[in-house]
Specification:
Keywords: Activator, DNA-binding, Transcription, Transcription regulation. This is Transcriptional regulator ArgP. One of its GO terms (molecular function) is DNA binding. This protein is of the alpha/beta class. It folds into 2 domains: 91 residues, Winged helix-like DNA-binding domain superfamily/Winged helix DNA-binding domain (Arc Repressor Mutant, subunit A); 202 residues, D-Maltodextrin-Binding Protein, domain 2, CATH 3.40.190. Helix content is 45%, strand content 20%. β7, α10 and β8 form a beta-alpha-beta unit. α1 crosses α2 and α1 packs across α4. The model has no long low-confidence stretch (mean pLDDT 91).
Length: 293
């Protein structure tokens, strides 16, 4: 069985851009042509490959083909660049990466400056869920807590991101001062990044040996998350570097001195002989070595 590269590229475009119409615009063809190519590819494979939703997503059978399409596009771009050499200048390569928000807001971005000729498509997700985008083929690399390599990927340990539980002085006075930690964490308003964020619950369980269900605010942006804590909306966990600065300045209070939460992070990426992925991996590991424990 031979896969048609045009059909494969069309399928990848549908998944990447979320719809048949958007893929058609990107490929400069009609939506009908896109639909015909997808149907032809599904006939060859013998499986439905696209769930026609908003946005379109790959089925279980389609996920390996998304990854294959991305791998072929990357290798093709690198091969063309090598073949053309210096005569026509370097072609730009696009690399899709998913990173947890705290890493993106902190140590990760400087690593990208080591690859000035690469266009990055950065996605964010909870570190416990980023590997899912590797599995469905929509990204080439991920910062993740998953230490078991996704099929077809390599994995390297980066280090641990340390978090401290903090609150504004007025929040500390209202909810924590003079109270047992178990009672305080059970009652004090909590800040969470989103519903996937379990760091606060994990920390409270470690300190109090109890599960808690306090009033909760959801603030899905790293800078705004910290700002909400500084404003006294509730307590939460933030990366140690930011926490130490605010604690020293009196803007925040360490709620459980001597206690912290370490989140181990790993770098997973497609197992390809790709100069771009190799260079990106080296840059990410160097940045992590300086920033993580």
């Amino acid at each position: 069985m031979t896969l048609d590269p045009v059909q494969l590229a069309t399928f990848q475009a549908v998944i990447e851009h979320g719809s048949f119409d958007a893929a058609a615009r990107m490929l400069h063809v009609t939506p009908s042509a896109v639909s015909q190519r997808i149907k032809a590819l599904e006939q060859v494979v013998g499986q439905v490959l696209v769930r026609r939703a908003r946005p379109c997503v790959p089925t279980g059978a389609g996920r390996p083909l998304v990854r294959l399409g991305g791998q072929l596009a990357l290798l093709e771009a690198e091969a063309l660049d090598a073949a053309r050499g210096a005569l026509s200048g370097s072609a730009r390569t696009r690399v899709a990466v998913v990173v947890n928000a705290d890493s993106l807001d902190g140590w990760f971005l400087p690593a990208l400056t080591a690859l000035p000729d690469v266009d990055f498509d950065l996605r964010t997700d909870d570190e416990g869920h980023t590997a899912e985008l590797l599995r469905d083929g929509t990204v080439m690399a991920a910062v993740t807590t998953d230490r078991v390599a996704v099929q077809g990927c390599r994995v390297h340990r980066l280090g641990a991101m340390r978090y401290l539980a903090v609150a504004a002085p007025e929040c500390h006075t209202a909810w924590f001062a003079g109270r047992e930690l178990s009672a305080a964490f059970a009652a004090a308003p909590m800040i969470r990044f989103n519903r996937k964020d379990t760091l606060q619950h994990r920390f409270a369980r470690t300190v109090t040996r109890r599960d808690i269900d306090p009033p909760t605010h959801f603030v899905p942006a790293s800078a705004s998350f910290t700002a909400a804590i500084r404003l006294g909306l509730g307590w939460g966990l933030i990366p140690e570097a930011s926490a130490r600065t605010d604690i020293a300045a009196g803007r925040l209070v360490d709620l459980a001195g001597g206690h912290h939460l370490d989140v181990p992070l790993y770098w997973q990426y497609w197992r390809l002989e790709s100069p771009v992925l190799s260079a990106l991996t080296a840059a990410v590991r160097a940045a992590a070595a300086d920033a993580l424990r």
